[in-house]
Amino acid sequence: MSIFPPVPKRSPKAHPSMEDIKCPSPNLARMHLIKGKDAIDRYLAMHIKGLSKQEAAAYRNSYMKNTCIDMLRQGYHKSFAELFTLIENWNALREASGPGSAIWLEKSIGDQPDKLDQLHFFLIRAEAAQRSEYYEEMYTNQLSLAHCFNKPEDRWLRNYFYEQCYKTAQLIKIDGGKKEAEAHSYMGLLYEEQDQFLKAIEHYEAFHHLTVGRMWKDDTGRTFNSLACEHLWRIYTLLADKMLRSKEHKQAIKILIKALEMAKEVGSKKMEGEAAYCLALVYHSAGEESMAIFHLNTYLEISRLLEDYTGMGRAYQALAEVLVSLGEVSTAITYLKKFMNIAKRLPLSQSLVDVCTFLGRIYNARGDYDKACEYFDQAFAGANAIKNFALLNETKVYCGIGRAHSLMLKVNSHTEAANQVNIKYLLAWKENRSDMCSDPFTVDAKYGESIEYVSTPVPKDTTWYIILHFKLYVGHTCSSSKY
Q1: Which residues in 349-362 are b (16+ Cβ under 10 Å) and which e?
Q2: Contact residues for 40 (Cβ-Cβ < 8 A; gap 6+)
Q3: Are 386 and 352 in contact, with CB atoms under 8 Å apart?
Q4: Which of 105, 255, 289, 298 is surrounded by the fewest CB atoms within 10 Å?
Q5: Read out DSSP for 63-112?
Q6: What phi and psi, each to the nearest 5 degrees, are found at residue 320?
Q7: 453 beta partners
Q8: Maximum Cα–Cα distance for the chain, whole Å?
Q9: How far apart, in Å, are the Cα atoms of 428 and each of 62, 250, 404, 423?
Q10: Residue 22 per-residue DSSP state
Q11: Ramachandran region, residue 287 (left: φ > 0; alpha: ψ -120 to 50; beta: rest)
């Protein structure tokens, strides 16, 4: 059954005469057309219970077009222009990126109703607040928009509204600068993410300056001043790291001294310890060993205070490196053994592997190859226990180098002797692949049938000797049930 009313039947009329079918004047025809259209609209409105013209247009138009029409009907022309500009900027960014880029596969803002709703709601509220010169409310709505777009693909929108917040915050004069300080922190974050550290520092320093002596707090209860100090500590450290890669040691030291001051101001011992550790590393790289030792001792004391055993391990290891560079190897070994004892009592497997590796390297450099092998084997066992395959491969290399150096001394001693007994021993060692160099007088007449050997002839090039022994030793070690 049709929902429309029945069409009234009409009897046919007689054919009109030539006078009747003459075209009227254009103005008269238009007037009759308008009158006829108005009559039809009135009839449809009175007799047909259907959609209004606005409702029909809402179904015909896209969501984007309806949103824009609604903004214009309410009189928010600036919000409409801002939304349209954002969509044009996105399209330009997409075209510049070209096919195949990540943004090329994303939907436009105009095709995402959720984002359009957020933009529509907050943009018109911000514009209404601006007309009334309620700049605080305008700032709040712009900040809400920035928080709506935190996903990686929407960062450009978030950054745009952070910039708008910063501009609006300059107009607020009744809060003592709180909103301005907050806007500076957001701008610093924006530039930090873009690796523009100098601009980020400029905004973070302004944030810090505005919060000195203030008790303003964020939603989590942290004071703005402590937050500003933390931001500055972090950005100073990042900038110093960048300078260090460019060999700008003096500038890096100056920046890290500022980072240490910020850490002390915020009152966080952990941050202070990290700042002292980074500063010590730069002093060590610059060759200022006394300052490096001073700051490493500071870091060590803070780690002890906080019972941070990982930090203690880093401090002991860094101190050992500095002391080795100064030739104080015995003191360096003492530091490392202290931490090794701590690491054995606590679940610090990674740290234990690091300290054993470092001790093995020290003994290897001193020529005490048996001791080096002992610590390299412990490092290998620790890496195998924690199933760290990258570390396992690294310790394999050290084990191979230590064992090769150990065997090299024994092989060289037999080679230099150059008597019949030592030559027989070397031949037996080559044929039977022994893992250890035994006493040459125990070799029997058949050149050591009872001895198991694992090696190759000694090449003149020591490097190749180490590589060959490393390959054989790793193959032997990995198949052993010991590990």
Answers
A1: bbbbbbbbbbbbbb
A2: none
A3: no
A4: 105
A5: HHHHHHHHHHHTT-HHHHHHHHHHHHHHHHHHHHH-TTSTGGGSPPGGG-
A6: -65, -40
A7: 433
A8: 143
A9: 89, 60, 18, 9
A10: S
A11: left
| Torsion angle of C-alpha atoms 297, 301, 307, 313, degrees rounded to 10 | 10
Q: SS3 of 301, please?
A: helix
Residue 2 identity: S
Q: How many Cβ atoms sit within 10 Å of the Cβ of residue 482?
A: 8
Q: Give which of 135, 138, 134, 154 is closest to 146, Cα–Cα.
A: 154
3-state SS string over 455-479?
CCCCCCCHHHHHHHHHHHHHHHHHC
What is the model's pTM? 0.71
Reading the chain (483 residues) residue by residue, the pLDDT tens digits are 444 344 343 333 343 443 443 444 444 344 444 445 566 666 656 655 566 666 666 666 778 888 888 888 889 999 999 998 998 888 888 888 888 777 777 888 888 888 888 999 999 999 999 999 999 999 999 999 999 988 888 888 999 999 999 999 999 988 899 999 999 999 999 999 999 999 999 999 999 999 998 889 888 889 999 999 999 999 999 999 999 988 899 999 999 999 999 999 988 899 999 999 999 999 999 999 999 999 999 999 999 999 888 888 889 888 988 998 888 888 888 888 888 887 777 777 788 888 888 888 888 888 888 888 888 888 888 888 888 788 888 888 888 888 888 777 777 776 777 677 777 777 777 777 555 445 444 444 343 333 333 333 333 344 444 444 444 444 444 444 333
* Phi, psi for residue 453 in degrees, rounded to 5: -120, 150
Q: And the tokens for 159?
A: 């950054």
Residues in a beta bridge with 433: 453
**Cα separation values, 386 from 120, 381, 390, 405, 440, Å:** 54, 9, 11, 27, 40
CB-based burial of residue 103 (10 Å sphere; 0-12 exposed, 13-18 middle, 19+ buried)? middle
